[in-house]
Amino acid sequence: MYQYTEFDKQFVRSRASQFRDQLERWQAGKLAEEEFRPLRLQNGWYVQRFAPMLRIAVPYGELNSAQLRVLATIARDYDHKEDNDLSKANPGLSDLKSLPSRCAHFTTRQNVQFNWIPLDKSADVMDLLASVNMHGIQTSGNCIRNTTSDERAGVAIDEVADPRPLAEIIRQWSTLHPEFAFLPRKFKIAITGATDDRAATAWHDVGLHVLKNEAGEIGFRVMVGGGMGRTPVVGTVIREFLPWNQILNYLEAVVRVYNRWGRRDNIYKARIKILVKAEGQRYIDEVEAEYQQILTHDGAPHTISQQELDRVSASFVVPASRVGTLPLSAMPIPTIDPADTNYPRWLARNVAPHKNPALRCVTLSFKRLGYSPGDATGEQLDIAADLADRYSAGEARVTHDQNLVLPWVRADELPALYAEAHAAGLAKANVRLLTDMIVCPGGDFCALANARSLPISEAISQRYQDLDELHDLGEIDVHMSGCINSCGHHHSAHIGILGVDKDGQEWYQVTLGGSDGSDLSGAAGAGKVVGPSFAAAEVPEVIEAVLDTYRSVRQSAGDKAETFIDTLRRVGHDPFKQAANAARTSTGRAAPQAATAA
Amino acid sequence: MKLIAFAAHTAPAEGQKDAISLANDVDPRTVPLEGVSRIDLNFPKFTDGRAFSQAFLLRRRLGFQGEIRATGDVLIDQLVQMQRSGFDVAVLREGVDASAAQRQFDRYKGFYQGDAVHVVPHFAEPASTLGPDAAAYAGELERQHSA
Lengths: 598, 147
Ligand code: HEM
Ligand code: SF4
What we know:
The structure holds 2 protein chains of 2 kinds. Chain A is α+β, with helices and mostly antiparallel strands.
């Protein structure tokens, strides 16, 4: 992991004290509400339905065990439902009693969120975070957000180059950039160094692929203008190869042109994707011209020196405790109950190969019944910290799919890790299966939601608890968002679910065939809407009908079944649409009303 | 950075040659700057950040040596950012309490990226200018090179 220098540490502490200053001026009435709002947002403090939501930045998803323990403390000591005014409940939308509290929430952007911390405790929480070099800088607001990456960065077997040193250099460059703190809209960068895209790069404002050219030099393929929301757009490649040391100069050009020309008159047209779409080649030409000016006139001050790359890279060397791992043959063979059918499945699903053949990359599943997807209680965070210390050189990664990865696990310690993770309820063998859903907080917490997402995901998970069935269905991406803002990435799902509002009631639109751009899903693209929206109770029926259709038409080669997404592409959407629409009438819900839904 | 109270500021007159004001959608590279000693840039809302890029271009790209003045919705929490982007004078919005302004300039020991005024990014600064961090930084480099 990156080792913070004294400068880095001091910087985070300065930020915490700056926030306290702003909070106190606001409390004293010296800073108007609308003046404080963007300031608190740029520190991660949203105000939601009942309470502020705090979003904490986790640069490219990397966390150490000390940080996990501080998150555990915050969950236990500050994330209290009872401390908040619950009178703002929206009667149709939230079931207050069952809303989780005292827990952290892993997000699709590899960050961590809390839902119940009162604003008057916010400065204390920032100080606590700063004690382990954490903060909420630019986790919200119209600025460059946390740069996300591959959860297996640095350990993946399909990696061309480790993207983390470059991600860290980008983090530093974008942090409190004076020119780019008030852009037309938020701005998200994702970077991967692997061939399988686990970072959904095409869906970001800037997507970067680290690659090697024919001469063996490292550089980037640069995509610009991807994004979801009400207009899903896949990013456009604007540079096939940019030398690695020019990335900051180039990003400066990309963002400056956006700052000047991005639309500010209409919030729905303010994202860079709209500018890139509207201007096309003209946007690309202008970026290139601006980049040339930075090189020739400004002297390219942000050209990254080899020395700086070396300095940052030195933080990302293989942890010392994992270098001299035992040869496999010398390892004791631990015992696992042969009747535990979950264990071999866990090995197959939750354990990924590693650059070092003696090591593995293990996913702790935070998708289990009784908890919202990606929620972790204080106790579970402490357990995760212990597991990271014992089995993964003290390091964990937040994944884009809302789980935690332990990237440095010795193969011989898998049974022991399994036993402990299983006891803690974190060893469900469902990674990338149906119940490993991506779900946003939805109407239960989010003030912008049209519908709840947590109860729907719970209902679907309930229905698919049988591991045999889950594994038979195979890999499938189900993503759900409570409104068109698409925080749950429903556009990129094989089966997407989107909450829509109709007559003050919750309705759900279903999409099929979206892709995040990974090898499993193929080229990135948005799914297609099945038809009119469904009532909440119908959604699990619809999912079941779609999956039953898949099972009846899929082909198998040997013992390998055709995946859901491949089947859908082969036979087309129609049989699935018909099945889904049949599920609508079968429950006798108000079909005519639904037929006019958005 | 020099702060001016709202009452003490006068906008350039129409046709005035040595002082001009630019709307925030104007590309400063299209404006003749000969004989101009002061340019006012405007923040219609403090959340509209176009003037930061304008100031950067004036200072860095065009080498403008005169005064770049921030006007409009100017609050104290953006002053450091303004200064780093190339502004040297700011007119606080009417009614803004300036007493907390100086604290904002004193808080950070440095920033990561270069800007319009302090061009060199933190990582490229010679160790001698790194202040109290210099030893730690140099030590870290040495450790890594000898590793
Ligand atoms: C409850 C707090 C939240 C609020 C108020 C919120 C607000 C928003 C808004 C307004 C947008 C649309 C922005 C635009 O199109 O410019 C958006 C998009 C998004 N948000 Fe959230 N969000 C919240 C929670 C989350 C969570 C929990 C996640 C991750 C699980 C998340 C990740 C995203 C992503 C990935 C997008 C789509 C970005 C794109 O268009 O490329 N947000 N959010
Ligand atoms: S998708 Fe909508 S409901 Fe879900 S978190 Fe984002 S803004 Fe809230």
